[in-house]
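Quick one, tokens below. Sequence please?
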């Protein structure tokens, strides 16, 4: 599976909640601090050698600028273009779910003011 695209994330540590794991993984992999997030969907996927349980979270707000801290390639892809990427099979149902979501209408900018969201840009710090 090396070299293929996948969403950021990883395993839940013992005693950690899903939300705590999400925050830790995004901090470790991308250098961002999650402000708020919600579960969009959960699924199981059977590879030949293992079964994986996955959760897709929508991060509603975060601080920092995403950067590749683990040396992985990193790029923003609009949801409607994800199907054309070499995404892991387990993540394919997530692509279909994301493509059905309406675009974000507004997000909170610096000072708590609402502004039009650009999904290709990181959230303000």
């Amino acid at each position: 599976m090396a070299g293929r695209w996948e969403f950021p994330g990883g395993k839940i540590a013992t005693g950690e909640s899903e939300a705590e794991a999400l925050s830790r993984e995004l901090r470790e992999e991308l250098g961002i601090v999650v402000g708020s997030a919600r579960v969009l969907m959960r699924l199981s996927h059977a590879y030949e050698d293992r079964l994986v349980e996955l959760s897709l979270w929508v991060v509603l707000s975060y601080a920092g600028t995403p950067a590749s801290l683990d040396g992985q390639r990193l790029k923003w892809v609009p949801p409607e273009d994800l199907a054309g990427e070499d995404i892991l099979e387990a993540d394919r149902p997530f692509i279909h779910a994301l493509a059905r979501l309406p675009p974000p209408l507004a997000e909170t900018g610096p000072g708590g003011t609402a502004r039009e969201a650009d999904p290709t840009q990181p959230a303000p710090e």
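The first helix runs from residue 18 to 30. DSSP finds two helices and four strands in the chain.
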